[in-house]
Amino acid sequence: MTKVIVGSNAIRGRDHDVNPDRTLPKNWRLAIAIAIGCGLLGLALRYVARKHATDDAIQHLIPWYVFARDHGVAGLAEAFTNYTPLYSYLLLIAARFDWLGDPLSLVKAISVVFELGCAIAVAQIVWRATRLPLRASLAFCAVWLAPTVIFNGAMWAESDSIWTFFTLVSVALFMRDRNGIASFAMAFSVKAQGVFLGPFVLGMILRRRIHPAWLATVPGIYVALAIPVLVAGRSWASVFAVYLDQAHTFNRLTMNAANIWVLAGGMPYAVGVAVGMVLAAASGLVLSIFIARSRRMGPEFILLAACVSLMLMPYLLPKMHERYFYAFEVASIALACLNPRYAPFAVIAQVNGVLSYLAFESEIVLGVLPAALCNTILVYYLVLDLWRGERGFRFPSLAWLGFIVSTAGLFAYLVFEGPGLNISPVYLLTTGLVTAAALLLLKESRCDLAGPDQLPQS
After folding, report:
1. Does 185 score more than 60 pLDDT?
2. Looking at the domain assignment, is residue 456 inside a domain?
3. Given a cut of 90, is residue 170 above it in pLDDT?
4. DSSP string, 356-376
5. Domain around 283
6. What is the rounded CA–CA span in Å between residue 184 and residue 195?
7. Which of 105, 149, 252, 357 is least buried, going by the fewest C-beta atoms within 10 A?
């Protein structure tokens, strides 16, 4: 009996040492203060960027909003956007606040709402897994102020935060041992990119032995969301062929996406599409089977598996845009807050994202190559971590310094030299430095790659 009591006290003491925030209300006050401060800063940044307009926003988003504002609910009979019906409803809601600002600002406000939702969802994921208020607050701030998040919504008025929000909710539900298929179906009903989480969801269905009939919710929710536009008189073909029409919008293997197709630029388009689809499908199936059969448990493993799915699909699939890594870039922040050894993944993901965004924003395409190389490294280590597990961690100070310096050098070179520059020895050198530094950073973050079967027996 004495031994049990001592063990129990030791466990309570150890929990107290690791988790002092549970007993210190001042940490709650600090966490709330940090979240409020970063929240206001994020709003200020979005206000400053409210008038920044891309060609896509001028040619598509603003005319869509104006149509929704001028025609109201009756406009649902027309396919005035090339997105799914849900986005048309959001435009109609935004148009109700037309007196608050110009069309571009109100379109961006839609993204802001869901960006806030993403930040809250990540904070909830971290809080439920760690019960540390400061960690949850940091997660909220990191997502809300993430450079790729600012680029995507505040500057470009894109809507990737919408499907990402439902993706995060789906992952959060699975982490709580609940069914997240309906949320996944919502993500897919917003944009086809929601399918990036598909291998993870299939793996969880097999792992949790969820009835396959739940997969019917994916088309079911899409149909349910389409009912208002169908009642309004829009044709069935225009409603249910949205994703097919989007797939034929352009004929390039990559649209500035930092993925494998940057490294295979000479491959014929038709061959590349076929190879990419087969490669992604096969890899997704392998990932699903691994998740279903793995004996690892816990919220960190589930989140890591989701991150692998969200990273692997846009990395392997052809015809991807630079912003299709958005969900991984956000989810990796949650993973880093759960386990600090994954901080390099989140940081490098943001750097790669910004380098890719610059290709469209400033026509600086030279940054896509090092971003693709670094994403290749990220995919390798994510898959390896999921497969073999991890043991031990230390912060690689020298590697962090090397990555920061080389990345700063690359950004400075790209910004000062400007677009349209031919590849030069200086560029090749800076590209090599960033890639090498990323590799060193990730390598030093892995002190021990021993799998569960190699761990010492207790």
Report:
1. yes
2. no
3. yes
4. HHHHHHS--GGGHHHHHHHHH
5. 31-450
6. 8
7. 252
